[in-house]
């Protein structure tokens, strides 16, 4: 009890405001994902829960937790529209690599960069509809959310194994 | 013709490497007292007037004003005029005039200098005449100049910023250097490119291992690879989750409802195994709000609970293992 009081008095606020933003995201993510998984479990008690549906829930939770970003809207659209949702990782799971081009003259460098930017756009949900500057800033947020998502998923998996 | 310190402070030299934004910022800073110390540090790598005898510098880094260039007439003192309220480019003003002058936001190229010219129109009538003269002078001198260096700054964007800051300018004329396109397209293009490189720098900080790479292409490669690896990780984990999920007793979550654990957020995810003390925020939102804190020191972990039975740990990495064992105890007690 004492410790409780002590701890409550010892309110620690994050010195890095960004991190509390991350906390908010993680919290939202978990609170979206776990009930969804629960529901999934209950609905499909006998049938096997496919990886696809889980992935769907995972992505859905991601999109719902990050609604301040443009990419999440696109992701949500994609998820809700398609019956068998194509996950965002489909393109990456096919092993698309960064294009290895033979060395060309310097004049082609701009084209190379543009090529890479287009590639990046493909990775980001909805990236192709954005212009480059917007895409670059959205990519930053997307990366952060992906990282938090992986942390959260790892925690869930670890806790249960 | 080295100018003495007092007048030096009033003079600016236009340097090719200085972006318009810097110059504009420099002008603002000029308004603030105590900027003199920055004078000496001004653009050391820029071309010098009169073969290096130039004396009037304005600190560029972090300085807020547009640089105004004096033109060195044949062997005479370099003349710079700074007037906050109107366009002036001084080519022929005596040094006495400078003191009278207020800030000048016109940047002109001085002889032999490559510079970008930015003019901001202001409404001070008394200066109008002079400015006309100086503009004429400048134009004539401009034609004589060699402009070769590329300017990077974004005039149109800067202009909007400057107008906000200075509040008197109606519009900004941008003069590009000779050899550079002056149409609005290329200026907008330059603006865009600056923005993009700004974002790239931000991404560089975000993606681990990117700071060692220079060059857009390499960085973009890294970023692409990183995003792909993150996405693959998510896929892999969700696969694992699918396999594990039947075993998850989701009621556990209710138990954890009262427990609020803050998860240290690490960003070196792809390369490292997740530290064992990382925990997930399993609390419900209102609980988090009630508990009122978040602590994200990656080394420490703050755990609180409104349940008197649960344990509190404020630790430096030792308690995590304790916490884990508690979790496992809970799980085992629930028969999972």
UniProtKB/TrEMBL annotation, chain A:
**Residue segments, region Disordered:** 81-112
* Record flagged with keyword Cytoplasm: no
What the entry lists under CDD domains is as follows: bHLH_AtIBH1_like
Stored PANTHER family = TRANSCRIPTION FACTOR BHLH146, TRANSCRIPTION FACTOR IBH1-LIKE 1
Query: What ranges does the record list as Low complexity composition bias?
Result: 81-94
Task: List locations, semicolon-separated.
Answer: Nucleus
Q: Name one GO biological process term.
A: regulation of DNA-templated transcription
Q: Which InterPro entries does UniProt cross-reference here?
A: bHLH_AtIBH1-like, IBH1-like, IBH1_N
Organism (species): Thlaspi arvense (Field penny-cress)
Where is it mostly found?
A: nucleus
Protein name, UniProt field: IBH1-like N-terminal domain-containing protein
Pfam families associated with the record: IBH1_N
RNA-binding: present as a keyword of the record? no
Domain of life of the native organism: Eukaryota
Q: Which GO terms describe its cellular component?
A: nucleus
Q: Which keywords does UniProt give here?
A: Nucleus, Transcription, Transcription regulation
Residue intervals of the IBH1-like N-terminal domain: 23-82
From TrEMBL, chain B:
Q: Where is the composition biased (Polar residues)?
A: 134-143
Q: GO molecular function: any one?
A: DNA-binding transcription factor activity
Which keywords annotate this record?
Answer: DNA-binding, Nucleus, Transcription, Transcription regulation
Main site of residence?
nucleus
Q: Where is the composition biased (Basic and acidic residues)?
A: 144-163
| One Pfam family cited in the UniProt record for this chain | HLH
**InterPro entries in the cross-refs:** bHLH_dom (IPR011598), bHLH_ZIP_TF (IPR024097), HLH_DNA-bd_sf (IPR036638)
Tell me which domain of life the UniProt entry assigns to the organism this sequence originates from.
Answer: Eukaryota
Q: What name appears for this protein in its UniProt entry?
A: BHLH domain-containing protein
What is the species listed in this Swiss-Prot or TrEMBL entry? Thlaspi arvense
